[in-house]
């Protein structure tokens, strides 16, 4: 079934979860030579003049082709090509895009992947114009999402922008993307094992909304990707297609639920934390999806450990009564600099460290322990499976392989519970009073 058919299938009736799921994207074309459909798409939106946004890499990869196709189709356009070799999604880039924008244009075409798309979404939202993204790499799952992952005031933030009206995934273009970007795409898909697992047990522990149908959609997409993983390394058409479709579906699953739950869990927080540290301290960071893959590897090992634990109520209560939030806030500040303040602010409304709330959660955890373990067994990758997959893709297994100091991994894990208001593995570890043991185990497990 095509993705557009999946969307209309979900949209046509109320889901058993109680929601009517909708997605903003209007058209998705994934095939070899998909960019040939551009003139028709522009006409469908009554576009008279297109504004093309690309950077030098993506322009070489697909921008020139896009211009040629528009020339042949008799469609006028202006273009702005960022000159930076490594472009960042920040105020400067958005400012450049707006200042170079040609006001005679009535439709925007982003040619690129993560960064260009994030900027393009903001530009089209600001200009109130339809937006088409021509994907150059299946590297992350933001194609169908209505938010932009940006750095703002040197902080990593997720801004509400707008979802592309049309997504064009030309397999002939994407299969020639840098290999690291194909790997990153697979990494962002591997993360979904963790996200679905955490979403499902959070539903048990916190009563948070969960939709089995959306979870099933994501599971199916992940399986297609991992089944094809080896062929991805050879740039096989079907493998590239599976990853791109999976990433688009990941975005749609988020749109369906209005949550990041179906697509990101603790492994994404590992990645966010390393990005925050890069912004704050200039330490190394890698592509989002590569970091998510490494985060998934750590998560797989930690889940394997937690499965063998018997919850001990007294131990958990003692741990929590000894927990000093002010001391912890200062540790967060040392570790993350300015970014820590947003997390500390979040706790004021969230109150996840409230002793009373902890007691209630702990009761639920203890009485549902078998169920929680069952979810972990059903949903999580075994460490050996994760390792096999990463090795088959010639991907890194550890932080140090991507230039990140192995010594910060325990603190990364502990800080991951504060990144967003989501119940993820380190929160479960904290609730059980086993944070310190698990932390010590992370590096030993390697
Ligand atoms: Zn549902
Ligand atoms: Zn992601």
General description of the model:
By secondary structure, the chain is α/β, with parallel strands linked by helices. The chain has 2 domains: 3-177, Rossmann fold (3-Layer(aba) Sandwich), CATH 3.40.50.1970; 181-210 and 261-444, Up-down Bundle (Dehydroquinate synthase-like, alpha domain), CATH 1.20.1090. It has helices spanning 3-11, 38-44, 56-72, 91-99, 114-127, 171-174, 179-206, 212-227, 229-233, 237-257, 266-281, 288-306, 313-321, 325-336, 339-350, 355-367, 369-379, 383-392, 409-415, 425-431, 435-444, and strands at residues 27-31, 49-55, 76-82, 107-112, 131-135, 147-152, 155-160, 166-170. The strands form 2 sheets. A 6-stranded parallel β-sheet has the order 1-8-5-4-2-3, sandwiched between helices. The chain binds zinc ion (ZN) (2 copies). One zinc ion binds at residues 15, 17, 19, 21, 211, 213-214. Residues 140-141, 188, 264, 268, 288, 292 line the site of one zinc ion (ZN).
Notable characteristics:
446 residues, alpha/beta, Rossmann fold, Dehydroquinate synthase-like, alpha domain, 2 domains, six-stranded parallel β-sheet, two-stranded antiparallel sheet, 21 helices, 57% helix, binds zinc ion
Biggest sheet character: 6 strands, parallel
What is the 3D form? globular
- Number of structural units classed as domains: 2
Mean pLDDT: 96
CATH topology of the largest domain, by name, is: Dehydroquinate synthase-like, alpha domain
The percent of residues in helical segments reads 55-70%
Biggest sheet: strand arrangement = 1-8-5-4-2-3
CA radius of gyration: 22 Å
N-to-C SSE string, H for helix and E for strand: HEHEHEHEHEEEEHHHHHHHHHHHHHHHH
What is the total tally of β strands? 8
CATH architectural grouping of the largest domain: Up-down Bundle
Helix/strand/pairing class, anyone? alpha/beta
Oligomer: single chain
Proportion of beta-strand residues: 5-15%
Low-pLDDT regions: none
Q: What compounds sit in this structure?
A: zinc ion
Instruction: Count helical runs.
Output: 21
CATH class of the largest domain: Mainly Alpha
Instruction: Kindly report how far apart the N and C termini lie.
Output: 41 Å
